Amino acid sequence: MNIPAIRFTEAKELIAKEYHREVKDFEDFEPEEEKLLCELINKKTGSEFVFVTHYPSKKRPFYAMESRENREETLSFDLLFRGLEVTTGGQRIHSYEEQIEKMKCREMSVEVFEEYLMMHKHGMPPHGGLGIGLERFTARLLQFENVRSATLFPRDINRVTP
């Protein structure tokens, strides 16, 4: 089975159109929008997963590579499963000059990141990365209402130690 993919802006437009919702946040999803998008994709394709790609550059980390077609978007993604983001990832900047330029645009101190930038200076190959929320994925897989039910030592405002 193929996992469908949709660009972030297209997903926002689809949710607004299908559910007659005003778009309030043009840079990220509200939790309700993640649920609604998954519901729509499941109805249309039968998939409980959906990749959302090309998130706005403003919302992604400084190391996320921007799209060559639209510098306002990144080559990044979220994987949504049953209404919840379970993985975030994307292509990362490997060019020293490109990384410096993006950091300066964000008014970041290049000097603070000298050790990180060393690998870019000496030939970082094209690469990407992702982070999976294992507890989030497990909670969705087991259809738990709350991610804390899938967490060994859940934290909240009333509990910060095991």
What does this structure look like?
It is a single chain. The chain is 33% helix and 18% strand. It has a domain at 5-93 and 127-144: Bira Bifunctional Protein, Domain 2 (BirA Bifunctional Protein, domain 2, 2-Layer Sandwich). Helix 1 packs across helix 2 (31-45). Strands 1-2-3-4-5 form a 5-stranded mixed β-sheet. It is built from 5 helices and 5 strands. It has helices at 8-19, 31-45, 96-105, 114-121, 134-141, and strands at residues 5-7, 49-53, 76-81, 84-92, 127-132. The protein has 162 residues and is α+β, with helices and mostly antiparallel strands. It is globular, with a radius of gyration of 18 Å. The longest helix is centred in the N-terminal third of the chain and has 15 residues, at 31-45. The model has no long low-confidence stretch (mean pLDDT 94). Strand 3 and strand 4 (84-92) form a beta hairpin.
Give the helices and strands, then pairings:
Blueprint: E1 5-7, H1 8-19, H2 31-45, E2 49-53, E3 76-81, E4 84-92, H3 96-105, H4 114-121, E5 127-132, H5 134-141
Parallel strand pairs: 1-2
Antiparallel strand pairs: 2-3, 3-4, 4-5
